[in-house]
Batch of 3 targets.
Target 1
Amino acid sequence: MAATQFLKRLSSLVDLSEADEAEVRSLPWSVVNVRRGRDVLSVGHKPGFAYVVQTGWAARYSLRKNGSRRITGVMLPGDFCGIHAVAGAAMDHAILAIADCEIGRIELPEIEKAAQSFPTINKALWRAKLAEEATLRAWLLNSREAIQAIARLICELHARLSFIGAISDGHFTVPLNQEHIGDALGLTSVHVSRMLKELRAAGLADYQRQELLIPDMDALRAACGFDPAYLYLR
Amino acid sequence: MAATQFLKRLSSLVDLSEADEAEVRSLPWSVVNVRRGRDVLSVGHKPGFAYVVQTGWAARYSLRKNGSRRITGVMLPGDFCGIHAVAGAAMDHAILAIADCEIGRIELPEIEKAAQSFPTINKALWRAKLAEEATLRAWLLNSREAIQAIARLICELHARLSFIGAISDGHFTVPLNQEHIGDALGLTSVHVSRMLKELRAAGLADYQRQELLIPDMDALRAACGFDPAYLYLR
DNA sequence: CGCCCTTTTGAAGAAAATCAAGGGCAGTGG
DNA sequence: CCACTGCCCTTGATTTTCTTCAAAAGGGCG
């Protein structure tokens, strides 16, 4: 069901009535598949759809003049993007499939219509934007201590994966490699490797070939001062 | 006239019809004054208004657990904030008056009504949000070379001040002190001082007691690779 | 097995933080 | 008119953090 995860995310942002839910479910979804390493949306593209990640992970990124990459956000199942288009603007950054993705999409006029007729849906879209913005601010706020920055990213991913039910006993799969993590935090992969080693030594987080184990979530949170409020999850 | 600068900013985002303009002008504005160093809006506050800076400068900021401050955006005359409230959310960061400010405000229901009846105004509000978001991404993208980061901030301020007509021959007033600049870029004020000295020595930008002189804007742009597209100015 | 991709490790160097002291300037009050 | 005070900026010396460069070590997979 294409709309299910999307609905879950919307419900975390507002209280949907049954009519709202029915409306979202009735939207005409189509699906595209994007393989790991390929762009879901590219710079300059003017999407005619709103996109929702159904399975897999994606990331927003931009390239610097010197060729280095900065990841500015991670998208998990249920997250959407391309709402840009609601304002008729072109993509000023790209979106990359970190793992093979199934992306659901709705034609923009459809979702605009829904937003216009259903104030709660409109509100949800606004809140989703606010959540994205708050996340960007949280990333900007990220301390310059690399080890804390990494810990906080892990906490964020944990909180979001937990919300969508993708975690079993503090043990989960993260398709990001150390270069992705570095690009998301403005660090080199070499340094990420060293800091992950420290986190492991400290017993806070064990990240080995895409499997992440957190023995004590509270300890990790405390170590980096993570507060999930900016994610707007309920 | 409270609405004038606001209209100018909206016009940079969309093409307003005369009816749209008339609607914005007819909105019931009130004015509040905030002195340099005081908060315009504080964390946790649930604004009942949309705010527009009329004169002065303001900045969004958050405090870290260790007490350090991160400025996540600068607001100049014509910029607005508190649109948060459109979604009924509380402020998760604060807004500080960098210089004495005159802030215009409209009650939220008024602006919501305008947005609902005038699709172009609604679109403008969305685009304004997108511009803010794009700016956050641009800040996140900011290279880790401190001198380039500072140069880029100067370029951004120049572009935005230029747009609102606040610049005469590459010479303008910046009420930010070096600590503000550091907080906006994640640097210490000591390092900012050193880098400003370098920029001065390189003949790229001369910043002395709140007065900024840029001998050759193109040279400065080239030095830091600044591209103003993310500001959505036209 | 051999290849590719990712991670790990080491050593050296660069960038920025930290600590500490001094200097300029504006505003205040004698 | 001058001294005093507070704020901000500047400068130097030192230390920390992270990058860079380089090489080797694991896996996963055809």
Target 2
Amino acid sequence: MDKSVFEQIYDIVARIPEGQVTTYGAIALSVGRPRAPRMVGNAMHRAPEGLPCHRVVNKTGALAHEDAFGGEFFQRYLLENEGVPFLENGRIDMRACFWFPDGA
DNA sequence: GTCATGACGGATC
DNA sequence: GGATCCGCCATGA
């Protein structure tokens, strides 16, 4: 609609249930731009406070850069606290907690 | 309207 | 699984 892709991205990210995570590509797909996962990342960087951007990860199951949430450890702590299973290698168990944004 | 940029994804090695 | 290269698209200046 008139809302920019960024607005739609914020809306979807805000709907991510606790204990689950989604990928930039999935969000991009939900906003109608399956080829624009970069926009999602960009939107996260510009994201206002209150947005659970820590629940958004890349498809590899790895978290965003260390300095994005006050530390890689901090983001992992938040996710684990919500019930997101982590693997021994420090990555998220995508097959178990992946959530597909059906909002759009 | 054009240029440069970006919290990525996929393919390939 | 990890690292590297290329490509995609919207936003901001």
Target 3
Amino acid sequence: MKLILKREWFDPALTLDEQVFHWVENQGVYSAVCAGHVGRLVPCVQGYYLETQDEQEYVFWRAYFDLDRDYEALAAMGEKYPVIRQALALLPGLRVLNQPPWEALVAFIISANNNTGRIRKLVLSLCREVGGGESCFPTPEALAAVSEERLRQMGMGYRAPFLKETARKVVEGFPLEELSALSYEEAHSRLITLPGVGDKVADCVQLFGLRHSVSFPVDVWVERLMRSWFATGTMSRKAIGEHGRQILGKNAGVAQQYLFHCARRGLIPLDKGA
DNA sequence: AACCAGGTGCGGT
DNA sequence: ACCGCACATGGT
């Protein structure tokens, strides 16, 4: 079965290169192995297609690429907030992926106080050296078995013990998959008990891995944008996140992605009194 | 040479 | 609950 991703609503450069760090592009073809599923996006007339072997694979990738979300419904937020309307118009083809929670967890622990180029480099070396193949994300068991020293040699720095310890907790039964059935608040408070996971990383895991689309991660860029356009003044990042969830509601996190990418790419000015 | 990058942990108010 | 600082690493 072929999964078609039409160019009108799917842009790999916006979606795969920016939200997940182990997809690699080669002559127009994007590939990665996610939770054991082999993904290969091939360009075609309509945009891209992904060939799947059976029903189960089809269902996995359909969910991964968020094909069941109503992106038209986002326009409602744009009516109330012009900057969101602008962001939606500037980035057609941006979607919010539904990654395996474990993969989002590891990638975003690595993301802390780091830049995207190096995050990608680190995640890819983790795939290569621990996952057992190019772009093949490692299992919790595999990561838990790696020594801290080896993780440091890969360049993980002070995050090395966080990664190892978090992997160990997941192997010991931390109910990562079950968190999506809990409320945003409940899942959040459990996630931040993991080492290397604070509010921001937990929010990313919830948004990208647990389908908690109300989650509103606040990093340096979103903080700047919110100060410029939403009068958040001297609010802490935690308070800005609460504010975002409150005023934007169930799709706050989807809006956050559009705002984040616009801010980071300089598509929306941030100097408005910030 | 400082400062920054999709922050977090920790110890002190 | 809030605040300030250290923290690995690589790029300007």
